[in-house]
Amino acid sequence: MSTGSVEVVYRGIFQKTLAKNICRGVVFAAKKAGKIGIAFGRYSDSPERNGIPAKQFAVVSDTEEELEEYLSRYEPDNNDVTIAADDTLCKGVESWAWYGLQPINKLLADGGTLLVTSTQSPNRLLSFIHRKGTPYNLALVRSPASFSGLWVYKDDHTDVRLLGALAKVAPHIVSLEAILETIKEQWKDDSKVQSAKKAYGATESHPVSAEQGNEEIPYEFELPGWKDMEEGLVIRGISAEAQSITGRDDGGYVPTRNTTFKKFSTRSMRPVINFDTCTKCTVCWLNCPDTCFDVTPDGFYDANMDACCGCGVCEAVCPVADCITMVNEEAFDGNDGQWEAWNKDKEAYAGWLAEKIANRPPRAHGFHHVGQYAEEVKNESA
Questions:
Q1: Which run of H or of E encompasses 7?
Q2: pTM of the complete model
Q3: Which CATH code, of 1.10.3210.10, 3.30.70.20, 3.90.550.10, 3.40.50.1100, is assigned to 240-259+269-358?
Q4: Are 87 and 96 in contact (CB under 8 A)?
Q5: In this predicted model, what pLDDT tens digit does every residue of 137-177 receive, in sequence order?
């Protein structure tokens, strides 16, 4: 007997239908092979929020008893395959302050496969992915992240292509034949069957050694022993003094923030700021829903990249053209602020800014009008 499990890590709301379709497809395909399976969602807020990492799971077993035994575990920590539906999730997953920032491969079994939708190279992705300490495989489905936005599902075949790739990297869970039959039956679209076949053949798999990956140590915590536990649920608050705006040694000031909770795992885009054109109007600072702007000693507003969730409100409300521009998160390696770099070398910063804006990969959250996707496909094939 054997049990196989797949987790799909996706961005809340934006990719929920995508993740659900993948896991449902796994279960339907397993049934065609005489197995039993179940698909379900966990680790997400209810209701899910824009961009926050969430998960869907699919578990497949030979028998019902084996499936029940596997599901009785509190936390599946040995998934055969982890699917990252957006490659910027490779920087880490934070389920809205439940566990702190966790590696994308944390729940992946030794020797398992991390399957990523991406146009980036394996080495580039490994510069983000935390070092696991045990060998595993990194597989790529070549395409940009599929975002649909709120309640609109962008049907661009990403779900069936990932199912085809899954059959390639984990044939013990689902076979290609069962996947193709399921797609034809459930999706009723021969073009999607062809997309799954193509993805099966094109999927790249690269071995990753125990020493490869980002050396950063993820957030860690210790559960209290029974002698240390307190009555009820205790969440330590911030003192009244600490809640006020705090000064900085250099004359600027920043709002008090949680030192553990990092919102950047929610972000698929980040703002870059042209301080040379900034008028210090305060509009970005006032409208930021996450209070991510620090006030600099000279009165500018610098986005704190640990606190920024990438919502794009600052770009939308800024009255100065091209002063704030949202750029794909994959273009950045760290979370350093931008004002210090600008203040140190304005000419070098101007070149950096121009490069980021000019070379930013496209990133869109959904449709602007009915029929837009069909128009995009037509333009791409022209």
A1: strand 3-11
A2: 0.86
A3: 3.30.70.20
A4: no
A5: 999 999 888 876 555 566 788 999 999 999 999 999 999 99
